[in-house]
Amino acid sequence: MIQLEHVHKRYGTKLAVEDLNLTIAPGELFAFLGPNGAGKTTTIKLLCGLLFPTAGRVMIGGYDMRTQGDLARPLLSYVPDLPYLYEKLTGREFLRFIAEMYGIPDATARERISQVIESFSLEAFVDDLTERYSHGMRQRTVFASALVHNPKVLIVDEPTVGLDPYSVRKLKDELRRLANAGTTVFLSSHSLDVVEELADRVAIINHGKLIGCGTIDELRNKARVDGSLEDLFLTLTLPQPEDQLAPTSEGLRP
User: Fold this and answer.
1) Which helix H or strand E contains 180, and what residues bound it?
2) Where are the beta strands (DSSP E) in 84-235?
3) Strand 55-60 relative to strand 201-206: parallel, antiparallel, unpaired?
4) Which CATH architecture has domain 2-214?
5) Which H or E run includes 109?
6) Is the model's pTM score more than 0.90?
7) Could you tell me the mean pLDDT of each successive run of 10 residues in the chain, 254 residues long?
């Protein structure tokens, strides 16, 4: 459902993403990790068609985002880390606006809006102006809007920021339900406990280069780390003194 083929992205003299290759299947919950400045945001913008690669191809559902973006974009939804709403609309009006943007027929739109309101427990505030919403209420509403048109690909960036524990649990359950139903979920997050619980596979990027991709167990074996995803992430991404690069019993970089 998602393919990145030898993707490079350059900003002037800076190479933000270098020769990135990924294939992500329908129904996979895929986590994309990296330190700040590693190239995660650039990759997400490439997936959404907000940027085009300097070289290589980005494919969504078999469509090239550069040349067939009009066919690819209806297949996906993007939930950014900072949720944006039109503050003079109620939550329900915003959901209707999104449904109209995708050309969803009225009867179907009403049904889908009711479903996402229930899924994200918006009933208590969905008819209030969104300018009154807390960050968590905004985040839940934006998530709901992203699912109105039943996307085949859902791209989410730091989805748990500002959510209370109950909302985090609901969100995790919803992401797993979507993947089980066949939606490809591309998740970028610094909440490694959430990733460890949910992800089918994990990719780690650093300095624009993919340094690991696979199940968490596969990455542990590759890096010779017997510990949490946090231990694994730090081992692969933190600078290592030259005298520590050789294999040890604790496991270092592959």
Assistant:
1) helix 165-180
2) 153-157, 184-188, 201-206, 209-214
3) unpaired
4) 3-Layer(aba) Sandwich (3.40)
5) helix 106-119
6) no
7) 96 94 97 94 95 96 95 94 90 96 94 94 96 91 94 93 84 93 95 93 96 94 89 85 42 39
